[in-house]
């Protein structure tokens, strides 16, 4: 149960800090600030709860770890529930804060940090999310495997998420995380919910492929000898 509570708190923190930056501070900090808000949230949680749950904070990450043979199906189920609950709870708190804005907060006009495609099409968004999640899981599995310099794992993983956001915010919103996408979409309206399927399917495809490659020894050996 401690692991599931840790995943709830960690996912809450990721969605809260990252999406709060998008909602309240994007104009002030720009896309670079948004990217670091998500990445630094992962760094903070990795070093605070990583020793309890591994700080997955992401259903796609847990899927990749499951496929790689590094967690049980029972824990996987508990992690998924905790992560989605954390993402939804964080979005609810952000919505409550936004509603307190003087003059009101117009979700339709301003958005609610939801992921979506528009400037680029659905295929571009799908390919980016799948490829970015594959690379993200490759880093996570390699940085946390036996024999790796685990003291740096949280920093490396967080900076990888920063790079993913810098590369793909304009393409897909750079989610690579179903829980991060689902929570805000619940409050953003039907248009966001109509697109959220992509942020379930594409990250899970990328994560599963990465987990399988790691279990088969393809990426594991590459990372170990790098």
Task: Describe what you observe in this structure.
The structure is a single chain. The protein has one domain (1-102, 113-216): Glycerol uptake facilitator protein (Up-down Bundle), CATH 1.20.1080.10. It contains ten helices and no strands. The chain has helices at 2-53, 59-67, 73-99, 107-110, 122-143, 153-172, 178-188, 190-195, 198-215, 218-224. Helix 2 runs parallel beside helix 9. The termini are far apart.
* The first-level CATH class name: Mainly Alpha
Quaternary state of the chains: single chain
Task: Encode the helix/strand succession as letters.
Answer: HHHHHHHHHH
Counting DSSP H or I runs of 4 or more residues, the number of helices is: 10
Largest sheet: none
Instruction: Please tally the β strands and state the result.
Output: 0
Residues in β-strands, percent: under 5%
Structural class: mainly alpha
Summarize the structure.
By secondary structure, the protein is mainly α. The chain has a single domain (1-102, 113-216), classed as Glycerol uptake facilitator protein. Helix content is 78%, strand content 0%.
Topology of this protein?
Blueprint: H1 2-53, H2 59-67, H3 73-99, H4 107-110, H5 122-143, H6 153-172, H7 178-188, H8 190-195, H9 198-215, H10 218-224
Helix pairs in contact: 1-3, 1-6, 1-7, 2-3, 2-5, 2-9, 3-7, 5-6, 5-9, 5-10, 7-9, 9-10
Keywords, separated by commas or semicolons:
Glycerol uptake facilitator protein, mainly alpha, 226 residues, 78% helix
């Amino acid at each position: 149960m401690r692991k599931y509570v840790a995943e709830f708190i960690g996912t809450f923190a990721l969605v809260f800090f990252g999406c709060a930056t998008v909602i309240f501070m994007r104009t002030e900090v720009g896309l670079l600030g948004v990217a670091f808000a998500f990445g630094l949230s992962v760094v903070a949680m990795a070093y605070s709860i990583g020793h309890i749950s591994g700080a997955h904070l992401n259903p796609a990450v847990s899927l990749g770890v499951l496929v790689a043979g590094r967690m049980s199906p029972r824990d996987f189920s508990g992690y998924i529930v905790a992560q989605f609950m954390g993402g939804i709870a964080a979005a609810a708190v952000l919505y409550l804060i936004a509603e307190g804005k003087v003059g009101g907060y117009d979700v339709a006009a301003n958005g609610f940090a939801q992921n979506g495609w528009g400037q680029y099409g659905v295929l571009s968004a799908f390919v980016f999310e799948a490829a970015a999640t594959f690379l993200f899981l490759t880093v996570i599995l390699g940085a946390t495997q036996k024999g790796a310099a685990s003291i740096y794992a949280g920093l490396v993983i967080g900076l990888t998420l920063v790079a993913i956001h810098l590369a793909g915010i304009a393409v897909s919103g750079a989610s690579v995380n179903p829980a991060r996408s689902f929570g805000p979409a619940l409050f953003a309206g039907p248009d966001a919910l109509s697109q959220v399927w992509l942020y379930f399917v594409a990250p899970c495809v990328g994560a599963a492929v990465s987990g399988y490659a790691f279990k088969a020894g393809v990426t594991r050996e590459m990372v170990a000898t790098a």
